[in-house]
Amino acid sequence: MNGQSSLRGEVGKHIVLLLGASIVILPFYLMLSFSFKSPAEIQSITGGFFGAQEMMTDQFCVKQGRPLAECQMLPVVYNYTAAFREAPLLRYLLNGVIVTLSIFFIQVLVALPCAYALAKLRFWGRDVVFGLVLFCLLIPVHAIALPLYIMLAKVGLTNTYAALIIPWTISVFGIFLMRQFFMTVPDDLIDAARMDGMSEFSIVWKVMLPTAIPALLAFAIFSIVAHWNDYFWPRIVITGDRDLMTPPLGLRMFKSDLDGNEYGPMMAAATVIVAPLVVAFLLAQRRFIEGITLSGMK
Amino acid sequence: MNLSRSSMWFVAPAVFLMFILLIAPVFVAAILSFTDYSLGNPDFNWVGFKNYAAMAKYSAYKKMFSASLLYVIIVVPVSVLLGLGAAMLISSLRFGGEAYKAIFFLPVMATLLAMAIVWEFTLDPIVGVVNAYLTRGCDVGWWYQFISGAWYGADPTTSWYGNGCNEGFPLWIGDKDYALFTIAFIGVWQAFGFNMVLYLAGLTSIPRELYAAAAMDGADSAWERFKLVTWPMLGPTHVFVITITSIRSFQVFDTVEALTRGGPSKSTYMMVYAMYEKGIQQNLVGIGAAITVVFLVFVLALTLTQVYFVNRKVHYS
């Protein structure tokens, strides 16, 4: 193979990949671009990426009876202010943070001691418990949604934070992952801690937890991404109460009570919801890819 | 502290939650599928296999199975092959590989529901970018001739593109002949980056010497090297990628609920959406539970097939 033909090969590969990349990136580009533009520019597909940013009138502001001069604004300002006004976007984002973080912390609280016991302690029934974990790994979440919903409705918990959080408090995948990790921790470390008079309880949180940080970080990314993006479960248990909606569900509601052509504000809302994870991903690509492909084991 | 007692305390919460939140619901679903239960009713009747019989009898459920199956049959091979292709191209690049990897992985990360709504706008027949540019292209002579086949001497009006220029381009998610393919396209767009990353990991684990050895045996062309070394050495990755993509495509919900609600004329009425519509929206819990049980059987069958292949050791190390 000579230099020239391998150069030609390299160029060819870049052409194919660039073509693919442009299709993959198209919706992200449009989402961001629409969130900048005025309704007229969106309708007529003009204005390039940023739009001309000509002053436009906020009809909502006019209806409130404020002077016309105050209601003139740039389309980009209009879109984002309308997104936060018409959908209680800030509330949705706050709910998303509350729900994803609560889920993650409870998952760790339940999984870590169990994983430690399965990896390092000998007790009656250990193999049964581990078998149970492996069995539960086979159960897909979509298959238990309906009965879980009935159970929650029976105890009157639908339309609460609890309904959003409780079903995910147990992560058998987390138990499995942490158990595999703890198996690699040398027994000497634990024995030394016991000699120092540490209780099993403090061994879990003061010795095992710090050693498990890398694995926990991967699991955190996996868990937070999954639950921030989840739409299926919030859609089932939150019906109507906007104050409890998570970002994807809130966006869905925004879409269904969209009157006229409020595409700009809606794309602004979508951008705000997608941005945190995408930015975090671009900053720490390797860790994110590691964390999310963990779910390949699920 | 007594070791075995503390292990009890460590394990008990997890075991309790596993029983309540994972194992019990599976049995509850199975039991409910034999009843006509609905939320709010104090009583219910045992109806035997009536719910399952309904699934075999009514055309809505037949459409549900065929739509789910068609979706999986499209999304799995396309996203697996695209993932493999992207991984092979990227891993053979001299520069720029990381950037492509990041871009292709973006859809895996991004909130699917939000991106589905963006796709809906993009494909909208009136304000959508796709149809707007397809229509504009009709007036660009060389492009029109190239795409409609006039260059190769074909009759442009009989081609898909020429027809679209005259009669208007498809409504995509609003057209029953296109809706499922459009949803499947979004599914592929979202999934293939995940497969690419798994294949990239698989490719790096192939020992370099194997390629040298294959070249000694006379495998000169890139295709032969691929056929003799790359493809078979990726055995375990194939099993893994195919199963996980199949299971995930069986679970498609967000795009269906947000864009088509199973329509038009049930062409995108897929299992998880059907389960949601029947069991939760319409409060026909019995039939929803029966769909759940069938769904569970499908997913377990896929998982057990994977376990079978993994145990047969589809690898050469």
Give an account of the 3D structure:
The complex is a heterodimer of chains A (298) and B (317). Chain A folds into two domains: 3-74, no CATH class; 89-257, MetI-like fold (Orthogonal Bundle), CATH 1.10.3720. Helix content of chain A is 72%, strand content 1%. Chain A contains 16 helices and two strands. Chain A has helices at residues 3-34, 39-44, 59-63, 75-86, 89-120, 126-137, 141-154, 161-165, 172-183, 187-195, 200-211, 213-229, 232-237, 247-256, 263-283, 285-293; strands at 56-57, 72-73. Chain A is globular. The model of chain A has no long low-confidence stretch (mean pLDDT 86). Chain B is an all-alpha fold. Chain B has a domain at 57-125 and 170-311: MetI-like fold (Orthogonal Bundle). Chain B contains 15 helices and no strands. In chain B, helix 3 (59-91) packs parallel to helix 9 (179-204), helix 3 (59-91) packs antiparallel against helix 12 (235-250) and helix 5 (112-122) runs parallel beside helix 13 (254-260). The interface between A and B is large, with 89 and 85 residues.
Give the tags.
heterodimer, A: 298 residues, mainly alpha, MetI-like fold, 2 domains, 16 helices, 2 strands, 72% helix, globular, B: 317 residues, 15 helices, 0% strand
Layout of helices and strands:
The complex is a heterodimer of chains A (298) and B (317).
Chain A: H1 3-34, H2 39-44, E1 56-57, H3 59-63, E2 72-73, H4 75-86, H5 89-120, H6 126-137, H7 141-154, H8 161-165, H9 172-183, H10 187-195, H11 200-211, H12 213-229, H13 232-237, H14 247-256, H15 263-283, H16 285-293
Antiparallel strand pairs in A: 1-2
Helix pairs in contact in A: 4-15, 5-9, 5-12, 5-14, 6-9, 10-11, 12-16, 14-15, 15-16
Chain B: H1 3-32, H2 50-57, H3 59-91, H4 97-109, H5 112-122, H6 129-137, H7 141-148, H8 160-167, H9 179-204, H10 208-216, H11 222-233, H12 235-250, H13 254-260, H14 271-281, H15 285-311
Helix pairs in contact in B: 1-15, 2-3, 2-15, 3-9, 3-12, 4-9, 5-13, 9-12, 12-15, 14-15
